[in-house]
Write a structure and sequence with these properties.
Blueprint (H helix, E strand, L loop, with lengths): L1 E6 L18 H17 L9 E7 L8 H14 L2 E11 L6 H9 L4 E7 L3 H6 L6 H13 L5 E7 L6 H13 L4 E6 L7 H7 L8 H17 L3 E4 L2 E3 L6 H7 L4 E4 L4 E3 L3 E5 L3 H9 L5 E5 L2 H12 L6 E2 H8 L1 H18 L1 E3 L3 E4 L1 H4 L2 H8 L3
Parallel strand pairs: 1-2, 1-9, 2-3, 3-4, 4-5, 5-6
Antiparallel strand pairs: 6-8, 7-8, 10-11, 11-12, 13-15, 14-15
């Protein structure tokens, strides 16, 4: 089983912390959709005969697309790929883009899951992040999603920002629990290079991110959501039983996926490839029936390192038996010995048959993974 990820590189607002293109030009959007439809057809051999079980519209603001445009994209995918029964089809949306009428339209064309960029239920946080929606819209859209009959959706919350106190972070989490949100993704506020936020912090116009506060917020999050019955199945993701994101899980489980659109990445186990990020060059190439991408063949060591990195982020952890079977017993033994040496320092919860991190360890999952990488 494989998945398709569709990257929509447009955004209608300039959030301080992202690098998306802030263009909603009708002509540019039309040209992009035309190029995307062509890439869908040209890429159909990438995944071979694998069935597609998930389609994910992400990046920027996918909900900026018209209903007919999304419908055409889905029709083209169904025409060119083998789709499983009842696939998970997700679209990212902002609260101010959601209305009962649009929800019903999305439902009619096959969208059955949403990822909603709530970020916070507090006005001051949304203003600090320069979000287009307000706190009232954040709650209203969730009510409308339930009323439209959707039982599988996710919200994003951001923690660790200068405007968010420990008390308000707790209230955000408790409100999500009270609203019975099926899936919650919680991300620490990160400052990326070449963003407005990074520039303002350097100019001391914005307060810098506090790592100690982010660690506190992480532990608050794991405690509150776990007590509420959510499965902490990946470092940043929590789900009620049976409602994990199938699409995102495919990344962490090492399944194959095809990325479509500017900047989209693809992976088939032995190699990875990524499209160019420039919208104009992407459109120009597809108009000439050329897919503008770069490709990297993955060595066995790179494949193992990717497995280490992704598996340690999950509730199931790094399976030593799988490592021994796929990559060789020596690799499994080396990983086991390294973990035995640093079990308490790293905060590892269990070691055999899988290496699973506890909450302390999850705070440093990427660092622990890099310490286990092979060169």
């Amino acid at each position: 089983m494989a998945g398709i990820y569709i990257h929509i590189p447009f955004c209608k607002q300039a959030c301080y912390y992202c690098n998306f293109h802030f263009s909603t030009s009708t002509r540019l959007k039309n040209d992009f959709v035309s190029a995307l439809l062509n890439e869908i057809k040209l890429q159909k051999s990438y995944l071979g005969e694998e069935d597609i079980e998930t389609v994910y519209f992400g990046g920027g603001t996918p909900s900026i697309l018209l209903i007919n445009e999304i419908k055409k994209i889905l029709e083209t995918i169904y025409t060119n790929y083998r789709i499983t029964n009842n696939p998970e089809i997700t679209i990212e949306a902002n609260p101010d883009d959601i209305s009962y009428e649009r929800l019903m339209q999305w439902k009619q064309i096959g969208i059955n899951r949403f990822s909603i960029g709530i970020q916070s239920f507090f006005e001051e946080d949304l203003q600090w992040m320069n979000r287009a929606h307000n706190a009232k819209q954040a709650q209203i859209c969730i009510k409308e999603v339930w009323e439209a009959g959707f039982e599988n959706f996710s919200i994003d919350l951001i923690y660790g920002g200068p405007s968010l106190s420990d008390e308000h972070w707790q209230i955000n989490l408790e409100k999500a629990v009270k609203l019975k949100i099926p899936h919650i993704s919680c991300y620490a506020l990160t400052v990326e290079p070449k963003t407005a936020l990074n520039k303002m912090i350097q100019q001391q116009k914005k307060e810098a991110v506090d790592p100690e506060k982010q660690a506190r917020h992480f532990l608050q999050m794991t405690n509150i959501l776990s007590k509420a019955g959510y499965e902490h199945y990946e470092v940043s993701n929590f789900a009620l039983p049976g409602l994990r994101s199938k699409h995102n899980s495919s990344y962490w489980l090492g399944k194959n996926y095809l990325g479509l659109g500017p900047s989209a990445h693809s992976h088939n186990g032995q190699s990875r490839q990524w499209n160019i990020s420039n919208n104009a060059l992407y459109i120009e190439a597809l108009n000439k029936n050329t897919i503008p991408f770069e490709k990297e063949e993955l060595s066995l060591t790179q494949q193992l390192n990717e497995y280490i990195m992704t598996s340690l982020r999950t509730a199931e952890g790094l399976n030593l038996n799988f490592v021994a079977e796929k990559f060789g017993e020596d690799y499994g033994e080396k990983i086991l010995n390294a973990c035995m040496d640093k079990k308490f320092a790293w905060g590892i919860l269990t070691i055999q048959p899988s290496i699973v991190l506890n909450n302390k360890g999850k705070l440093f999952a990427d660092r622990i993974a890099s310490d286990l990488f092979f060169s």
